[in-house]
Amino acid sequence: MNVKSYVAKPREIERKWYLIDAEGRTLGRLASEVASILRGKKKPIFTPFVDTGDYVIIVNAEKVAVTGKKRKEKIYKRHTGFPGGLREITFEKLLARRPEEIIRHAVKGMMPNGKLGRQMYKKLKVYAGPNHRHAAQKPEAWNF
Question: Structure pTM?
Answer without folding.
Answer: 0.92
